[in-house]
């Protein structure tokens, strides 16, 4: 068991305050801080903190896969930690993207290798042969676009906008209000020549402004968040087809503790907020716009799932012990939120510790509120807000208890070894 030093990623869309404040560090920071990675990703592993100095978690696992991961996990996942967990803080929208399925990733990786595209080339889509299911749990209000809205509702949005330039596209959806219609419409938008885009986009943005003005008078809040998002994206990425695509997606605001699960083929873009994110250990992203990075439309179209997503927010499950589980089909990871309190009850007794089972599994704990004591074997380590801790499979009987009046910890672990 060791405290973990995360690997900080500074992207332009990050926040100068959120991650520093979470960790109790001076804020605002000089550069935007976007992500803090806790995992053993070869590109940027976290480090185990010890008196002898920091050790890369990747090296520690390479040296002793069975001791760190446990025999079952080491065997099932090829002696690698199968998940990567992060703090993420977005002050600006991220790119419009989707992730491949396992089969698509294997095939794409092989194809790009055969074509001789260097692994670190900016035009490379598949940097590994793995899928990348993602789960994001909000720590603050968290805005995102996720999955295609039910076409019937999108037709209502188009009707509300009432832009003549949108009429032919509205008809595409009216003729076929399903996944096929969405594919036809999205494909025609994302492949529009720039000249055509430059005619449609300003008209759509104008229509958004007018619709918002009308909403102001009528106090009808329907689609207000959607319209504002389209306008905001239009300012960040003028002339980008992704701005039109945003009209087709569910606009979600998660409250703290709520989650989104982004399975293979789900078109999504994070917009703003702070979150815990966990994913399979992969870097495979296919972008469709809203980014200065590499965009590969044909490849994105190959992996996209156009089936509408009526309710994108994941249903969490409260366990008998009071912890909250975010169930997903991903075997690589599982995430649980544990609320602890040290509050003495009426009988004066403190609350009992939270035990982590089953044994022989690795875990990463992230504390997001208060602080806790983590015990395993004879050792005890304090874990504070904004910090993380690695528990090896060989650490005996780990348990936690609150060191402050109340505390919140996320437990990241492997989903299934079957
Ligand atoms: Zn993603």
UniProtKB/TrEMBL annotation:
<dbReference type="InterPro" id="IPR046457">
    <property type="entry name" value="PMI_typeI_cat"/>
</dbReference>
<dbReference type="GO" id="GO:0004476">
    <property type="term" value="F:mannose-6-phosphate isomerase activity"/>
</dbReference>
<dbReference type="InterPro" id="IPR014710">
    <property type="entry name" value="RmlC-like_jellyroll"/>
</dbReference>
<keyword id="KW-0413">Isomerase</keyword>
<dbReference type="InterPro" id="IPR001250">
    <property type="entry name" value="Man6P_Isoase-1"/>
</dbReference>
<dbReference type="InterPro" id="IPR018050">
    <property type="entry name" value="Pmannose_isomerase-type1_CS"/>
</dbReference>
<protein>
    <recommendedName>
        <fullName>mannose-6-phosphate isomerase</fullName>
        <ecNumber>5.3.1.8</ecNumber>
    </recommendedName>
</protein>
<dbReference type="Pfam" id="PF20511">
    <property type="entry name" value="PMI_typeI_cat"/>
</dbReference>
<keyword id="KW-0479">Metal-binding</keyword>
<dbReference type="InterPro" id="IPR011051">
    <property type="entry name" value="RmlC_Cupin_sf"/>
</dbReference>
<dbReference type="InterPro" id="IPR016305">
    <property type="entry name" value="Mannose-6-P_Isomerase"/>
</dbReference>
<keyword id="KW-0862">Zinc</keyword>
<feature type="domain" description="Phosphomannose isomerase type I catalytic">
    <location>
        <begin position="4"/>
        <end position="149"/>
    </location>
</feature>
<comment type="similarity">
    <text>Belongs to the mannose-6-phosphate isomerase type 1 family.</text>
</comment>
